[in-house]
């Protein structure tokens, strides 16, 4: 919560105020960014990250309860918990997935930008406005990535957790896929902020292909994370 409050305070100083944001933009670009849709745009861009946080929290809570039930059923030997590392890796995977999306699709390939279905990036004005909102998206992505790193760091000295590389890799892939699914449903299907590939004769096919690839990532991540050493599905404290 402290990290979120800090980020929001930081945003108030350097993003929301026209005095600080887009200082080299001309008046036409600034007016197009800071119009009546400014705050709604922030909310819709933030919404997938909020949903992701809720989903991760629910999954972690359910997994923790199941692990405690297993401990009660099998008190000896003590089974190391897979939840903390998996949760941290998932959060980090969400952040990395966001950066992959932004770097590959927004910047390198330039198939779409954050609001390119509403504000086509085919003019200097449209490109500049979308560039600003791409930056806001990357700011939220950076916050998630930092959160994932902090969660991993907090596991450094814990002795009761499963440190399997499978959990790390599986969690990263699961988080990446989870980000793509919720972002794809929210931004492509519901809010219609952009399509995977704007210049296409069949935009929906690209959107659905993106979701299908994301589901594959989630499945692969789960399969890797569930691959355990030992018949009890965990590691014993030594």
Describe this structure in words.
69% of the residues lie in helices and 0% in strands. With 238 residues, it is mainly alpha-helical. It has one domain. Helix 2 packs across helix 5 (124-153), helix 3 (38-73) runs antiparallel to helix 6 and helix 4 (83-108) crosses helix 6. It starts with a helix and ends in a 12-residue tail after the last helix. Mean pLDDT is 87; it is low at 229-238.
The chain-level structural class is mainly alpha
Q: Supply the number of structural domains.
A: 1
Instruction: Tell me how many strands there are.
Output: 0
Helix/strand order: HHHHHHH
Q: Compute the gyration radius: what is it? A: 20 Å
Q: What is the tally of helical segments?
A: 7
How confident is the prediction overall: mean pLDDT? 87
Strand fraction equals under 5%
Helix proportion: 55-70%
Low-confidence stretches: 229-238
Largest sheet: none
Calculate the terminal CA-CA distance, rounded to whole Å: 35 Å
Shape category: elongated
At a glance:
It is built from 7 helices and no strands. With 238 residues, it is an all-alpha fold.
Give the helices and strands, then pairings.
Blueprint: H1 2-16, H2 27-33, H3 38-73, H4 83-108, H5 124-153, H6 165-190, H7 203-226
Question: Which features does this protein show?
Answer:
mainly alpha, elongated, 238 residues, 7 helices
């Amino acid at each position: 919560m402290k990290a979120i409050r800090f980020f929001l305070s930081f945003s108030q100083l350097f993003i929301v105020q026209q005095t600080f944001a887009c200082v080299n933009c001309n008046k036409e670009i600034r007016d197009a960014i800071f119009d009546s849709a400014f705050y709604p745009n922030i909310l819709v861009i933030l919404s997938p990250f909020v949903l992701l946080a809720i989903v991760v929290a629910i999954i972690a809570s359910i997994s923790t309860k199941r692990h405690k039930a297993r401990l009660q059923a099998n008190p000896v030997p003590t089974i190391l918990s897979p939840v903390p590392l998996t949760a941290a890796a998932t959060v980090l995977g969400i952040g990395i997935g966001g950066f992959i999306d932004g770097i590959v699709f927004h910047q390198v390939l330039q198939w779409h930008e954050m609001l390119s279905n509403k504000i086509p990036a085919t003019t200097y004005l449209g490109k500049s406005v979308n560039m600003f909102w791409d930056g806001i998206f990357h700011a939220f992505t950076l916050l998630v990535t930092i959160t994932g790193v902090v969660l991993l760091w907090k596991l450094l000295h814990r002795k009761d957790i499963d440190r399997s590389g499978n959990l790390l890799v599986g969690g990263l892939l699961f988080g990446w896929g989870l980000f793509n699914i919720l972002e794809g449903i929210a931004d492509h299907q519901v809010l219609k902020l952009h399509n995977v590939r704007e210049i296409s004769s069949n935009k929906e096919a690209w959107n659905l292909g993106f979701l299908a690839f994301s589901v594959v990532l989630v499945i692969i991540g789960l399969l890797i994370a569930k691959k355990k050493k030992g018949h009890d599905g965990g590691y014993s404290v030594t």
